[in-house]
Amino acid sequence: MNSVIASMKHQYCTTAAVLAIASLATAQVTMTEIGAQSPPDTLDGYNLAPAPTDERPFFDAYDSIDLGGGLNLTLEYQLIHFGVPDQGWRPWSHEYTGSAYFLDPGTDTQVRMRPRSQANAIVVYIDPRDDSREFEFEIVGFSESGDVQSIRAAIRGGEAQGFGISVPQTDRITQIAVINTDRSAGGFVVGQFLRDDGLASGCYADFDGDGELTIFDFLAYQNAFAASDPAADCDGDGSLTIFDFLCFQNEFAAGCP
Length: 257
Prior knowledge:
Blueprint: H1 2-22, E1 30-35, E2 42-43, E3 46-50, E4 61-68, E5 71-84, E6 98-103, E7 110-115, E8 121-128, E9 134-143, E10 148-156, E11 161-166, E12 173-180, E13 188-199, H2 215-226, H3 242-254
Helix pairs in contact: 1-2
């Protein structure tokens, strides 16, 4: 009996020590440059699903985009709906056919998009209107935890470039900004959206969904436990206790398939 208690104390101290270290870190937005190639099937441990076909009329302006799975993007400005490549917009960089949404340069040189429900990973492609040269863009991701990250890229018109934004499961994307920083692209479109569609790994210990086991999984689990998130009920007994921490530690030690 004493050996069992001693073992439990050791596990508790180990878990507490790891969580103390994890508490010094913060959840972060991850920005990924995909380039002109077709979008990947996964992003930072999340499966990706393409946005459904937009059946709304072309050449009209809209202030939202349906990404499917109950996820809608609210737009800062109304964007004009074009089709690639036969309804107003030229061919894409990798034979994409579908919708694109144009920001008129007379309106602004940046567009902000806000997910209206839980979003952990989003991919967006950007194509400048002017195809004479490359233009400077900055893509910025914002999270509910307060983290902000950005990526800069030069994009030539007619060579749409993709960018991914992702956050851990316990966080959410609150805003994406696409900014033509040199203000000279003659407007641009955003299109070929994809959204997260569940974890790619299916591994409980990979709690932040990035496809690998690190100290940040402990941080993500700690945050979920503190928020009374049912996802932190590792042992499945319907309540959150120290035994859930021990359960998670064991899952982590066992690794992922």
